[in-house]
Amino acid sequence: MAGKITMDDIARMAGVTKSTVSRYFNGGSVKESTRERIQEIIEEYNYEPNAFARLKARESNVIGVVVPTLNSKITSRVVTSIGRYLRDQGYETLIKDSDHSTELELKNLQRLITLNVDGILFSAINITEEHRSLIQNSPIPVVVLAQDYPQGICVVYDDYGAGRTMGEYIGSRSRGPVGYMGVEESDEAVGVTRKQGVLDGLKKCSAAEVILAAGDYSYESGVRMARELLDQGPLGAIICATDRLAFGAYRVLEERGLQAGKDVSVVGFGGYDESTLLKPPLTTLQFDSYGLGYLGAETLLKRTRGEPVPKKQIVDFHMIEGNSVIKEK
Fold this sequence. Notes:
Layout: H1 7-14, H2 18-25, H3 32-45, H4 49-55, E1 62-67, H5 73-88, E2 92-97, H6 102-114, E3 119-123, H7 129-136, E4 142-145, E5 154-157, H8 159-171, E6 178-183, H9 188-204, E7 210-215, H10 219-230, E8 237-240, H11 243-255, E9 265-269, E10 283-287, H12 289-304, E11 312-315, E12 317-320
Parallel strand pairs: 1-2, 1-3, 3-4, 4-5, 5-11, 6-7, 6-8, 8-9, 9-10
Antiparallel strand pairs: 10-12
């Protein structure tokens, strides 16, 4: 088809009415198969200028939220906090789960921009050049959560500070090799920054040998990494990048007739409620996830109103001491 297409053209090619296409652009109720077909046509013909110009003239009172996964205690706290704050301000949330896929993250961002929500809160796995291009060219404001984003606005955890605090905590108590169960470096905040904090904290305390393992965020990955570390010999401590990974470490210690807090120190990050039910309760660092969601939502609404906001805001953390660390004699 020569030249630019119109909404009438989109409706005809999708086999729907023009009002259905209009509902799609305004974030209304449209069958998923129809929504996907309209999106395919829009992408194929690069249709967007006229639609965005028309739709930006009014507010939708909808905020888009992109998260790496819904199967996470931390994410659920963040999303809950975002929802509570936005409801109080008269907004609804449209949540898109990326299932830890960078490709799906980009598609979710593009979809929300096309739907012309009033703004987007983007909890990122990482920030690639494609992400930067999409965010910088977005006609609606985007606030990045949980990953440092110098080119724009972000609200982050103090991953380095938390990692260093935990490294010093274990480094001052452990008398044997320390195992670190982390995640892949594609997640810069946890896979790189948090790990570096841990290593620097251990180094400051002149800790013994540090053995590294990497995987994903799953319990199964925690089990695999714990076996891998323990197969290399006795450990004085295991530092886990998340509490869920620590659950896997507990399982492997039990398999081998060992106990956290007695034979090996085990610590995590997250402060999950379930961590208090472990035997013994897990020592862990808890981030202010509710604060991250609240601050992100507040910052985004200020941006939609054209108010000045800080480029980077950092939320705090605190230690929850269980009985999973060997007591000094």
